[in-house]
Design brief:
- The chain has 324 residues and is an alpha+beta fold.
- The protein has 3 domains: 7-88, Arc Repressor Mutant, subunit A (Orthogonal Bundle); 95-164 and 273-322, D-Maltodextrin-Binding Protein, domain 2 (3-Layer(aba) Sandwich); 166-263, Periplasmic binding protein-like II (D-Maltodextrin-Binding Protein, domain 2, 3-Layer(aba) Sandwich).
- The chain is built from 9 helices and 15 strands.
- It has helices at residues 7-17, 22-29, 33-47, 63-88, 103-120, 172-178, 231-239, 249-257, 287-303, and strands at residues 52-54, 59-61, 95-102, 124-131, 144-148, 156-162, 166-170, 194-195, 204-209, 216-221, 227-228, 245-248, 262-263, 275-280, 319-322.
- The strands form 5 sheets. It has a 6-stranded mixed beta sheet, with helices on one face. Strands 12-7-13 form a 3-stranded antiparallel beta sheet. It has a two-stranded antiparallel sheet with strand order 1-2.
- Helix 1 crosses helix 4, helix 2 packs across helix 3 and helix 5 crosses helix 9.
- The model is unreliable at 307-324 (pLDDT under 50).
Length: 324
């Protein structure tokens, strides 16, 4: 008897492994528990290994079962991607699109773009999930993740959709009462609003003068009596005159334009965190992913909200890079 695994068995085993028991798997597949058990037994007999340890109430994968599941899921994803390439290569975008973004940027910029996107592409169903921290690169729960900074991982494609520069700013009332810093070390004498986010070094601000070989960076350990893990709260505290905050221009541009906040040490540069749309390499030809990423980049450029961020105040031409 041949030990070759049949393509249909990959889907069967993947669905079976996702269920807590044989009976639950049967209900999910619409067949009897006996039919599931028989099919599994036939697979194991043909392969000559035990794939699942099972009892009447629960089951667990053997090492051979874990190996089969890992490869089955990968192969099924590749088959799905191939189907999409063939069927939708020249079709209008359709189907489910799962998007992840950070809370503040997602609410302020991504959600409005999605509203316009689904009007233009009504056959696409978009699920937007906002989170404090970006999910792992290998997380298959999302098709597109909007994140800050180019992720150093060759398993994804990262398309730069907008520049992004952080700025120091404070309310005019605070600067009038406490004075305006002239050099970075002056910050150590001020109330600085701390933000604990991601893996960034907390409480350490880096400011740079000059470019290239003439660049000089100072690292300043800030202090203050207010800290938070939410950027919007930090900006609110700055507006209320509690101290100096470092935030992305997309978050404070409107307050700077209205004079509610004023730049601090504008002659110094802070670390850039350009905005990228990140997606798995298997989605590089997906019509809905490419349509959304292109739409998002054009919408952010056209809105003017992020205009002026970055060197020279001009947005770089959009580019897609395979990160390695």
């Amino acid at each position: 008897m041949s030990s070759t695994i049949q393509p249909a068995e990959l889907g069967f085993f993947s669905a079976l492994a996702a269920s807590p028991s044989l009976s639950a798997a049967g209900r999910e597949m619409g067949v009897s528990t006996a039919a599931v058990s028989k099919h599994l037994a036939q697979m194991e007999k043909r392969l000559g290994v035990v794939l699942i340890n099972r009892t009447t109430r629960r089951m667990s994968l053997t090492p051979e079962g874990e190996l089969l599941l890992e490869h089955a899921r990968r192969i099924l994803r590749e088959i799905d991607a191939l189907d999409e390439l063939i069927v939708q290569s020249k079709a209008s975008p359709t189907g489910l699109l799962r998007v992840n973004a950070t809370l503040g940027f997602g609410r302020m910029h991504i959600a409005p773009v999605i509203s316009d996107f689904v009007r233009q592409y009504p056959e696409v169903d978009v699920q937007l999930q906002l989170s404090v921290h970006p999910p792992p690169i290998t997380d298959d729960a999302y098709d597109v993740c909007v994140r800050f900074g180019e992720p150093p991982d060759g398993r994804v494609i990262a398309r730069r959709i907008a520049p992004n520069r952080r700025v120091l700013c404070a309310a005019p009332a605070y600067l009038e009462q406490h004075g305006r810093p002239r050099v970075p070390r002056d910050l150590m004498e001020h109330q600085c609003i701390g933000i604990r986010q991601g893996d960034e070094a907390y409480g350490l601000w880096r400011l740079t003068t000059g470019r290239g070989s003439k660049a000089h960076t100072e690292s300043i350990k800030i202090t203050g009596n207010l800290t938070t893990n939410d950027g919007e709260i930090a900006v609110l505290w700055a507006l209320q005159g509690h101290g100096i905050v470092m935030r992305a221009e997309w978050d404070v541009n409107r307050h700077l334009a209205q004079g509610l906040l004023e730049p601090v040490l504008p002659q110094y540069h802070t670390p850039a965190a350009d905005i990228y749309a990140v997606y798995p390499q298997r989605h590089q030809f997906s019509t809905r992913v490419q349509a959304f990423v292109g739409f998002l980049a054009e919408a952010l450029a056209a809105s003017g909200t992020l205009a002026g961020v970055g060197v020279g105040g001009r947005m770089d031409k959009r580019r897609a890079v395979r990160v390695s």
